[in-house]
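Here is the promised in-class demo. Please do not try to memorize the tokens; focus on the logic of going from shape to residues.
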């Protein structure tokens, strides 16, 4: 155990706080009401999503900036460019995603003429915006990834059909 890690444990015990460390990385206990990442969320999105979860209570603006990066990464995973989020979301709407998702993302300043570039802090973010963004990310994963998996699984479970030769 490194001296610094030991010192952190001692200091936290003295202050009445507990911390847990694994491989020199502090594990933050989750006590937020923010939804966990969807089980089918691509790996490329999970780390950023969880980072945004850990800071949302203390800094909704920073959390929203990170979530914009998650949207870009998710668009790439869904086969879109991941460059022009407006076009990517529009393409998903054309493929059947509800149009209301697009208008909600405009409200959260992810897309549209007032959209903020990914990773930039938007000073106009309200505390509810990142919470909406977490929900929308999980919804998009459910609609675009999980539903497709369920349909594919149902198809794979169909019996092989052989026409009668009578």
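The designed amino acids, position by position:
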């Amino acid at each position: 155990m490194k001296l610094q890690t030991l010192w952190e444990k001692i200091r936290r015990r003295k202050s009445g706080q507990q911390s847990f460390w694994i491989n020199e990385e502090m594990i933050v206990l989750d006590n937020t009401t923010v939804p966990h990442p969807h089980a089918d969320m691509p790996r490329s999105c999970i780390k950023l999503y969880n980072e945004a979860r850990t800071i949302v209570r203390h800094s909704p603006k920073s959390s929203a900036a990170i979530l914009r990066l998650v949207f870009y990464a998710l668009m790439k995973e869904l086969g879109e460019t991941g460059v022009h989020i407006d076009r990517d979301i529009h393409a998903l709407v054309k493929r059947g995603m509800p149009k209301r998702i697009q208008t909600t993302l405009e409200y959260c300043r992810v897309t549209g003429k007032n959209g903020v570039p990914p990773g930039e802090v938007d000073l106009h973010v309200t505390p509810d915006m990142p919470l909406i963004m977490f929900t929308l990310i999980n919804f998009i994963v459910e609609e675009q990834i999980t539903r497709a998996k369920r349909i594919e699984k149902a198809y794979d479970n169909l019996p092989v059909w052989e026409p009668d030769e009578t």
